[in-house]
Specification:
four-stranded antiparallel β-sheet, mainly beta, seven-stranded mixed β-sheet, about 120 residues, single chain, globular
Length: about 120
């Protein structure tokens, strides 16, 4: 059974940091292309970060320089280090894995940036 489980969300003040984790089971993790998405209330789900099987990364301008995606294939886990957080980063964050043509999603972790 495939499972992606996010952890590490919570409430943080503007300017603070959080690190999200996504633990995967049931997939060949080293072969997966991995992404973090986020969805704020009333908005579409947007891509936040991408890391390929070869550790190539991509970030949209909205988070570039503040967020860092990484993966540890020995632990079947990927991470999202989020620094300099702003209220606009408030959303539910989802991890996503693509293996060949199959897509898998986690259930999400809430991140709230507020003073």
């Amino acid at each position: 059974q495939v499972q992606l489980v996010e952890s590490g969300g919570g409430l943080v003040q503007p300017g603070g940091s959080l690190r999200l984790s996504c633990a995967a089971t049931g997939i060949p993790f080293g072969s997966a292309h991995l992404r973090w998405y986020r969805q704020a209330p009333g908005k579409e789900r947007d891509l936040v970060a991408y890391i390929s099987r070869c550790n190539l990364t991509y970030y949209p301008d909205s988070v570039k320089g503040r967020f860092t995606i990484s993966r540890d294939n020995s632990r079947n886990t990927m991470y999202l280090q989020m620094n300099s957080l702003i209220p606009e980063d408030t959303a539910v964050y989802y991890c996503h894995a693509r293996v060949s043509t199959d897509d898998y999603w986690g259930r999400g972790a809430q991140v709230t940036v507020s003073s």
